[in-house]
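Now for a chain:

_____
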Amino acid sequence: MANTIEKNSFDRAILHIDTTDGEITLADLKHADEATVTGARIVEVFYQIAAGGSLDIDRGGTQAMKLTAGSGGPLVGNINYRQAGVALRGSDTADIGVTVTGTDTYVTIVVHKIH
């Protein structure tokens, strides 16, 4: 599997990440038929982290979230910020960076786009 971005919705993009990607820009989230994306809010994170692996999400180089699985992994879960009406901390205009360590570590990130 390779990193992919589903940008088929005007208000949402879904990032499927299994390898490190240090710079997912707002332009990367834009679908051809929509207006320029001026911001992006991470509202949901689904993850599987292999034993001894980790997942680090940053916004513009500033760490926003880090999860690490112990030796008994895998660590599997979902964080839903949307239910509380909030988003993962960090600047809405900054690039999204994801660092993935460990075989079989991956994350799906749901992003609400701002136009």
Observations:
- The longest strand covers residues 39-49.
- DSSP finds one helix and nine strands in the chain.
- The beta strands are 4-6, 12-17, 21-24, 39-49, 54-59, 62-68, 75-80, 96-101, 106-114.
- Residues 26-29 form the longest helix (4 residues).
